[in-house]
Amino acid sequence: MPDDENPPVRRFKLKPKEITHTDTSARPGDGTAISVPLMHRQNEIAAERSSLRKWDDYPQSLADAAAEPGGSPLLAPKEVEATDPRACAGDGTAISVGLIHRQNKIAAGKLGPDIVAMPPKRRSRRTRDFIMLMTIVGSLIALLMMQLPRTTGTLLMGLFCAGWAAALLGWIMFGVMDDY
Question: What's the pLDDT band for 47 if we cut at 50, 70, 90?
């Protein structure tokens, strides 16, 4: 029966890496190695080419494009009118960092010192809660010991349980928990 046969097992594997080198490695002296003098020379050549402008080149700025006949008026720079006259160095309207600092110090002197009253530190209730919980645990252990026969072993077991509970509760309240 074909149902009893095992289905073919598919095995997956990663594709093999195919690495193709796009650049050949540069050798000193062949002109393709990166060097600072070569970069400076290329910058000089580019600066010389940009200074030689051809007549058929496009204008370099929007103002040149608007100045040409047939240029779009939308590309022309907008005229900006100054609402305030320019400040001169000695007329008192110039922005001065020293003057601003002096005005800030005068305003701070008028206000007085910044005294903020902090609330008094609240007393921790941790010790009170520890004593209250240990009283409850101790009384529960004492009630359990009253139900058991009164022997030396029972008394030692009760004292051990009380000490273990005190150590565990103390570690939790004073070691693990933050001050509350």
Answer: confident
DSSP string, 5-34: SPPPPP---PPPP----SSPPP-TTSS-S-
Model confidence, pTM: 0.34
Residues ≥6 apart with Cβ < 8 Å to 46: none
Mean pLDDT of 75-98: 74
What pLDDT shows up at residue 135?
96
The Cα–Cα gap between 89 and 101 comes to: 18
Kindly list the distances between the CA atom of residue 137 and the CA atoms of 16, 130, 141, 162, 174, in Å, as whole numbers in the listed order: 70, 10, 6, 7, 17
Task: Specify whether the CB–CB gap between 71 and 58 falls below 8 A.
Answer: no
- According to the model, what pLDDT value does residue 139 have? 95
Nearest to 166 by CA among 143, 135, 140: 135
Residue 130 CB neighbours (<10 A): 16
